[in-house]
Amino acid sequence: MTIDIKKVLLLGGGPTNIGHENELDAAAFERLMALKKTGAKIIYVDNNPFSVTSEEIQPANVYVQEVNFQNVINIIDKEKPDAIMATQGGLNAMQIAWQLAESGILASNNISLLGIKPADLRKVIDNQKLRDLLTEIDEKVIASKIVADDDEAMDFVREVGFPVIVKPMSASHDTSRFICNNTDELEDALDVSFKRTYIKRCSIEQSIVGYKEIEMVGIRDANGNKILISGMEDMDPIGIHSGDSIIFAPTQTLINEEYQALRTATFRIMDALNVTGTCHVQFAQSRTDANYFVTKVSPFFTRNTILAAKSTGYPLTYVSSFLELGYNLTEIKLPSKYSKFLAFMEPTMDHVVVKIPLWPFRDITDVDQHLNTLMKSVGSTIGVGRRVEEAIIKAMHSSQFSPRDILPSVSKVNDDDVINQLIHPLASRILILMEALRRGFSIDELSELTQIDRFYFYKLNQLLRAQDYVVNNPLSPKSVEIGHKYGFGDGMLAELWQVNISTIQRMNHNVKNQVTYKAIEPSAGEFMEATNIFYSSYELENESKPFAEKSALVIGRGGNQLGPNSAADYYTAQVLISLHKAGYKTIIMNTNPNAVSLTPQLSDKEYIEPIQLGNILNIVDLEKPDIVFLPGSRHYLSEQLKQFEDLNIVVLPPDQKVATYNQKKATTAVDLFIEGDEVLPVATISFVGKDQRTDLRLINDYKEPMDHWQTDEADLIADAVKKVDSSKWQGLVQILYNTTGDSNYEMTGIRPVRITETAFLTKTTGINWVRVLVRKYLGILDMKSLREQLTPTQHQRSSTMIAKFPFRELQSRQSEGTTKQEVGSAISFKNFES
After folding, report:
1. d(Cα 566, Cα 375) in Å, to the nearest integer?
2. From CA 453, how far away is CA 461, in angstroms rounded?
3. pLDDT tens readout for residues 747-794
4. Which of 122, 283, 336, 688 lies 20 to 30 angstroms, CA to CA, from 582?
5. Rg (alpha carbons) of the chain, rounded to whole number
6. Which CATH number is 660-831 given?
7. What span, in angstroms and rounded, lies between the C-alpha atoms of 227 and 441?
8. How far, in Å, CA of 89 to CA of 95, rounded?
9. Which residues contact 655 (CB under 8 A, 6 or more apart)?
10. DSSP line for 233-281
11. What are phi and psi of 250, to 5 degrees?
12. In CATH, what number does 218-348 get?
């Protein structure tokens, strides 16, 4: 039975952080598109300045506030919604939904919680209740017990056997974990743990370190109909956080009986929880028998829920939105681009997707870089190919910090360090695995040391053999053919042979070794679906046809990293929206599975390809776009692209004269917009720093308008307009000042407005500045309208944006962060007293 909803409150995901990038905003955005079809009024709460969703809802219906219990209660009192959707807001939103249910707020206001009933939600939030439920339905969970002495510990071990993990129960949050494989190790661990704990208790649990980690994503309707969207397999064993593992979709090493058992278990769990919508279940699967354990149940959107959707081309968020509203799978009509595929059909794959994490260790150096149960990655990239090897190499290319199309070498690591890193892995894990194979370690030996399935070593070995052939047979047609078959792009071939990329392109044309593009869609080619999501392969048939209309290619940022990260993806999404509104067919190229810019509704076509020169040129060659947009400060790539004179390329923020500084300090700034000779004041900013720090590297926090705006703003704006040279600067420009607070301001520099601050200005002024920039460079900007909207010296409220840093999650000792270490930001507004 469908639920009649007139007004629904959506809970946002909040600022990005470790474990949560833009995937929740992407889910909220897709959900918004689906809900608009119902005619329901949508209320949204989120304090993420880089949220695309919040800008697609009427401003009066958006609450820019922290997503917490009290704020949500206040919104309920004011808005009186019929229903709350929390699943797109992640675990935080689900915990708030549970608090609303427990406190009686939902019942007293007659509000429906969509997706899962309050009584069932409690079973997910309360770990013991979840264990009880799983035991009740005969699903195995890891045995654990709190023990007070050695005898109780030994009794437990007799029941479950070795290995076990011992942890002190300490008020000081001791994170020590001791893996014990025999009685001697257990006695030592208990001795240390009882000494460390204040309450003379230890936790002891079965160890499943070394088991395979398998993930299943399914959906279910209110009548109990279920389908599995995708199974995924972590290459790394249990013991390394799934967020830090290399992940394959579909599963690669399970036999059919194992796969079917986990599929059945996923369905049984969804039934037991009465889930309507999506559910992500994680399992530990034994390597030696059919034994498995349930390790985590998430009946809400997660990184890997979105990965399952990306991998299959199934419109999971769209379908899940209607399921939560009470529609059955058979009643949901998919968007028109799905011609014959129906919502109740289980997707199949004719390709492989590999996800590789990205780590922050280059920017935060004082953290333990070993991979373990603590998640440390800040992003990920995916590679898609017909075969496993091809998908691996594409994901590896996409995961490199270097813009050059070449993989880093670990050949100088000595043998002892290689062995040490095999047992205690670091972020360079996959390179070490390949180096060990190159040095003659046997596959059996490597599998024993790493607990990684032999299958993956066979695949990595194939990659090494292919690379050796290519290196040893330079510039031969056969080498080009083998390189392409295994995922080596033209740029990588050019780097390996130290020739210009145009040499490889000529060879491609001469031997008819042409790149083709295959579609990612859920029927695996059974139906002619027009999902318009593509990856490259070298085959006979090309499934991507160029647009007849004028088109624009937007080159995405790739995987999330520290620095502008989520702001750059917001920026890219806004470029796509702006180009669409300007009448262009839009094409996005990106590799970040959690990117909002890869939301299907935001572009006319997607390419999931490494952001490297050769891959870009191949797409340009096919699509022949009228214009290419490169959002984000990527100087190496923009310089490479500018060598091709036939490319009409726009770099945003504008790639102009490098910032100039008298001194790298500032307390205050004036933001200007420059079009031709005209200079328009936009806003004044005070930099909010701890202890009033003025070093530009440490300025991450902004306040608008500036301090003392009532007395100083007008004069400072006039000074900034006078000092900027429009022959050297265009677009959004920031004039920097230092002040001692006595109305004396010294100009200290000038620079383009940062991507993060562009988002802040958009939220603060109500003018979409990315859209303004796009229209400027398309030559269609209406300056008269822009002048009328700008009121830089009229203020009813102040706004503040505070950067978030991942130091606590990474157990770093740092407290002050630089602009290169930001992981996200929070925005807030405060009305001035009238």
Report:
1. 18
2. 13
3. 999 999 989 999 999 999 999 999 999 999 999 999 999 999 988 778
4. 336
5. 27
6. 3.30.470.20
7. 42
8. 10
9. 635, 638
10. EEEEETTS-GGGS-EEES-SS--HHHHHHHHHHHHHHHHHHT--EEEEE
11. -75, 180
12. 3.30.470.20
Helix, strand or coil for residue 426?
A: coil
276 sits in the region (left: phi over 0; alpha: psi -120 to 50; else beta) called beta
Residues 116 and 299 sit within 8 Å (Cβ to Cβ)? yes
Q: Name the pTM for this structure.
A: 0.92
For domain 545-554+563-648, is the CATH number 3.40.50.720?
no
219 closest CA partner among 255, 261, 273: 273
Contacts of 31 (CB under 8 A, 6+ apart): 10, 85, 88, 317, 320, 321
Whether 292 and 285 have beta carbons less than 8 Å apart is answered as yes
d(CA 32, CA 172): 43
Q: Give kind and range of the element (H or E) at residue 751.
A: strand 745-752
Question: pLDDT tens digits, residue range 45-66?
Answer: 999 999 999 998 888 899 999 9
Fold match, 218-348 / 660-831: yes
Tens of pLDDT, residue by residue over 710-750, are 999 999 999 999 999 888 899 999 999 998 778 889 999 99
Q: Please report the sign of the dihedral spanned by the C-alpha atoms of residue 468, residue 354, residue 50, residue 580.
A: positive
Structure tokens at 282: 């994680």
Torsion angle of alpha carbons 38, 44, 48, 50, nearest 10°? 30
Q: How far apart are CA 375 and CA 381, in angstroms?
A: 16
For the 7-114 domain, the top CATH level (class) is alpha beta
Instruction: Compute the distance between CA of residue 532 and CA of residue 517 in angstroms, rounded to an integer.
Output: 10
Q: Span 542-568, mean pLDDT?
A: 90
> Which residues does residue 668 pair with via DSSP β-bridges, in sequence order?
686, 737
All structural domains of the chain with their residue ranges: 7-114, 144-206, 218-348, 545-554+563-648, 660-831
Q: What's the CA gap between 537 and 514, in Å, rounded?
A: 9
